[in-house]
Amino acid sequence: MKKIPVGILAATGIVGQRFIQLLADHPWFEITAVAASERSAGKRYADAVHWLLPTPIPERVADMTVVESRPPLDCALVFSALPSDVAREVEPAFAAAGYVVSSNASAYRQEPDVPLLIPEVNPDHLGLLPSQQKSRGWDHGCLVTNPNCSTITLVMALKPLVDAFGVEQVIVTTMQATSGAGYPGVPSLDVIDNVLPHTDGEEPKMEWEPLKLLGSLNGVEITLADLPISAHCHRVAVWDGHTEAVSVKLGRRATADELRQVLHDFRGLPQELGLPSAPERPLSVPAAENRPQPRLDRDAAGGMATAVGRIRPCPILDWKLLVVGHNTVRGAAGAAILNAELMKAQGYL
Ligand SMILES: NC(=O)c1ccc[n+]([C@@H]2O[C@H](COP(=O)([O-])OP(=O)(O)OC[C@H]3O[C@@H](n4cnc5c(N)ncnc54)[C@H](OP(=O)(O)O)[C@@H]3O)[C@@H](O)[C@H]2O)c1
Hints:
Elements: E1 4-9, H1 14-23, E2 29-36, H2 45-48, H3 59-62, E3 67-68, E4 77-80, H4 84-96, E5 100-103, H5 129-136, E6 142-145, H6 149-165, E7 167-175, H7 188-191, E8 195-196, H8 202-213, E9 216-218, E10 221-223, E11 229-232, E12 235-236, E13 242-250, H9 256-265, H10 269-273, E14 283-284, H11 294-297, E15 306-313, E16 319-325, H12 329-345
Parallel strand pairs: 1-2, 1-4, 2-3, 4-5, 5-6, 7-11, 14-15
Antiparallel strand pairs: 7-13, 8-12, 9-10, 13-16, 15-16
């Protein structure tokens, strides 16, 4: 099969580097363009990037010349890891020029005609794309987003509970990795020996994005789920992997064993379709009382599985859970790649 040529916008950042790592040997996609800011444009990728991953820069990419993040680019699909303010201008310019855009940025997540997608959770929301193209006058291009990294981790754990028992209220407290703030991100002297009680803009995202993800597609719009969520977000001195302490009120009574079973059995369309980046089991459910932990559980299924454990009664809501997800893999680059794989499998690419 001829691979689809892909470009990466903001290829030099933390998420951009994950895209390059995850796409290096992808069976369907081949990196043909790397773009970043004008600071990096014109340089060899290996010279422009401050590479942070333990695997080496793929040789082909190391020698590519970085270009500016604007069309035209030598590709059909662009993965965007742009800062949100830049994404607001640049992503529609690519879609208007005929590119399929799979974005990590928050700029368009709340737009009614833009799918906010987790392929295991709401694959049918891709059904917004024909009306998006029509109303925006985009012939072949389109724009799909993935949620904020903490939201993905939360919603992966909530979705099977919503389906099996209903979920009526959620309180979530996050302990978010420093890599979630990009590079160089939070100054080390602020975060070492400390917990930072303010992660810019995360709490509103965590309280709203799940409502769209768990909402239902009615014709050309999404009806938001009716689910109050209270989020407390914190930054901690963990390199990768967001940890979230969650309390849920369910729609009906259930036992801890039923919860465990439903989480363990969870599967979605990516698993049915055998998409290349889909983990065989989207959720791992470690039994030990001291799991999940970011260091031990963030890399489950190459970072694409979310770990849910410590399922125990909550004296205020019904149940308490602890959830860990890899913020730059399942929470960012891996999420956008899985979205693009679903689009390809469903004929949007
Ligand atoms: N880190 C995470 O866990 C995570 C998770 C989910 C979503 N996100 C989202 O993903 C995006 C990138 O985050 P990050 O963590 O990778 O940030 P980062 O490490 O700070 O990287 C920023 C990237 O944006 C590029 N950039 C900055 N200004 C630009 C401009 N005017 N035009 C084109 N490119 C520009 C930079 O290129 P230069 O190197 O040339 O400056 C660099 O590649 C953000 O929207 C973030 O909210 C991040």
